[in-house]
Write a structure and sequence with these properties.
- By secondary structure, this protein is of the alpha/beta class.
- It folds into 3 domains: 84 residues, Udp-n-acetylmuramoylalanyl-d-glutamate--2,6- Diaminopimelate Ligase, Chain: A, domain 1; 191 residues, Mur-like, catalytic domain (UDP-N-acetylmuramoyl-L-alanine:D-glutamate ligase); 152 residues, Alpha-Beta Complex (Protein-Tyrosine Phosphatase, Chain A), CATH 3.90.190.
- Helix content is 33%, strand content 23%.
- The protein contains 18 helices and 24 strands.
- The strands form 4 sheets. It has an 11-stranded mixed sheet with strand order 9-8-7-10-6-11-12-13-14-15-16, sandwiched between helices.
- The longest helix is centred in the middle third of the chain and has 16 residues.
- The radius of gyration is 24 Å and the shape is globular.
């Protein structure tokens, strides 16, 4: 693509060099730049891409997009374009280079603090049950037309996203869904994707190391639903969980067509009724009422959908309702919604149950106070009389330290016994993190805990201490297969530790 065409819609302060240059690729990592590429210099949190512009030129870059002057040797007269915000303009470049692939499929974006991953898996399953060819992106992994693949972060950078959807369309994919993190919204990774439908699950304390306040966190999430951002994100309809107060606020502010879902609110368009949840799963009715006229024909006047799912807990009832709403927007009929929910047997690291012969280990990604509360509350509701609930958890380093004491208090109130351990300490002292967690126990006059910083030993101790019908909740890392210590990653999987323990004679 000619550079002048690639720059359509980009706000340029100044440019030098040949704008007729043929650009063969775009990127932000100087080491991955090839001949004929455009290198976009992004100011990062730890490193500044402008410092690597020279390396990008040596690797073959034909053009640079920068937001300040760069002193470089430019022997090949590389084109240099200066803009006010390279990260923001990167999203425009990416959509241009890949010819706006998201416009060629139905795209759903799921945002919120908890439940995004499971809701994506459920939505994808419903879309496939309705006959669509699909791709999806989650924290765990992505799939392109059933082929698994992995990205470095929850929501990839805009060039990777557009490339993913470009290749999906080339394979005949006609529907896709993805998690949309607050970072990806604020850092413009999802700008200029053409979303059709959005869903909001809930909002609880997380990422305050980045956003600083809940008000700021919500403001970023809400952009997807507000009329002032429609040209940036697209959007026609939304599914909102109005059991969450932030969901109610979005209902008042959004310009999108809305379907609401709720366990508690009679006014909701999708409600759960006759719900029975056990360790084996959920059975319930989805009651549909006052579905907007614009989409009412898609459900053929049906007022109730009988749901059977292998998933457990009230939070998964909410996730199922949300996915059903997205399914209705995307044209799935009631039978297809029921079949899609039934087909999903589980999600790796999301209330993942492992039977241990009369007792269970449950592995979950819960790493926020609300997430831990929900999984422990659900696990307690599944306990048989006389059985105990044991919790193994820690908190990540270099992240929102304010939630550590709160999570300790949650475990103190809901678990019969807890083992406090390491999560991903990163550059922090694991002992200091654990010390902050224990404050939540002491403030609740709870001594039903022990400390074991070695996560494998902590899990082994919890499993070895179980009796008949006990449940061990292993929270915080879920699907992750690593631990981070002082800038290094080591292989570690909660699931592998449990299975190894189970296999012992």
């Amino acid at each position: 693509m000619l550079l002048k065409d690639l720059l359509k819609g980009v706000k340029i302060i100044k440019s030098t060099g040949n704008l007729e240059t043929d650009i063969k690729g775009i990127g932000i990592n100087s080491k991955k730049i090839g001949n004929g590429f455009l290198f976009c210099a992004i100011p990062g949190f730890k490193k500044d891409g402008h410092d690597f512009a020279g390396e990008a030129i040596l690797n073959g870059a034909s053009a640079l997009l920068v937001q300040k002057g760069v002193k470089i040797e430019n022997p090949r007269d590389v084109a240099v374009i200066i803009s006010e915000d390279t990260r923001k303009e990167l999203a425009v470049l990416s959509a241009n280079f890949y010819k706006n692939p998201s416009q060629k499929l139905t795209l759903c974006g799921i945002t919120g603090t908890n439940g995004k991953t499971t809701t994506v898996f459920l939505t994808d399953s419903i879309l496939r049950a309705s006959g669509k060819k699909t791709s999806f992106i989650t924290t765990i992994y992505a799939e392109m037309d059933s082929e698994p693949m992995h990205f470095d972060r929850t929501t990839p950078e805009s060039p990777e996203l557009n490339d993913f959807f470009y290749r999906s369309v080339a394979r005949g994919v006609n529907a896709a869904c993805m998690e949309v993190s607050s970072h990806s919204i604020d850092l413009h990774r999802v700008s200029h994707l053409n979303f059709d439908y959005f869903a909001f699950t809930n909002l609880t304390q997380d990422h305050l190391d980045y956003h600083e306040t809940m008000e700021r966190y919500f403001e970023v999430k809400s952009r997807l639903f507000l009329p002032g951002f429609r040209k940036i994100f697209g959007g026609k309809g939304s599914v909102l969980n109005i059991d969450d107060p932030y969901g109610k606020t979005l209902l008042e502010r959004t310009d999108l067509d809305v379907m609401t879902c709720s366990i508690k609110q009679e006014s909701a368009n999708i409600k759960a009724a006759n719900a029975v949840s056990s360790i084996d799963g959920i059975e319930m009715d989805l009651v549909l009422s006052k579905i907007p006229e614009s989409i009412n024909n898609r459900i053929k006047g049906v007022k109730k959908i009988r749901i059977k799912s292998a998933l457990c807990g009230d939070f998964n009832i909410c996730n199922i309702m949300t996915a059903a709403g997205l399914g209705i927007f995307c044209g799935a009929d009631p039978d297809e919604i029921a079949a899609g929910v039934r087909a999903l047997e589980g999600v790796p690291g999301r209330f993942e149950k492992i039977s241990l012969g009369g007792r269970y280990a449950i592995i979950d990604y819960a790493h926020t106070p609300d997430g831990l509360y929900n999984v422990l509350k659900t696990a307690r509701s599944l306990l048989k009389p006389g059985a105990k609930l044991i919790c193994v958890f820690g908190c990540g380093g270099d992240r929102d330290s304010g939630k550590r004491k709160i999570m300790g208090a949650v475990a103190a109130r809901l678990a019969d016994f807890s083992i406090i351990t390491s999560d991903n300490p990163r550059t922090e002292d694991p002992g200091k993190i654990i010390e902050m967690i224990t404050e939540g126990f002491t403030d609740n006059n709870c001594r039903s805990y022990e400390i074991e910083a070695d996560r494998k030993k902590a899990i082994d101790a919890a499993l070895s201490g179980t009796g008949e019908n006990d449940i061990v909740m292993i929270a915080g890392k879920g699907h992750e297969d690593y631990q981070e210590f002082s800038g290094k990653r080591i292989h570690f999987s909660d699931r592998e530790v449990v299975l190894e323990w189970k296999s012992r004679p």
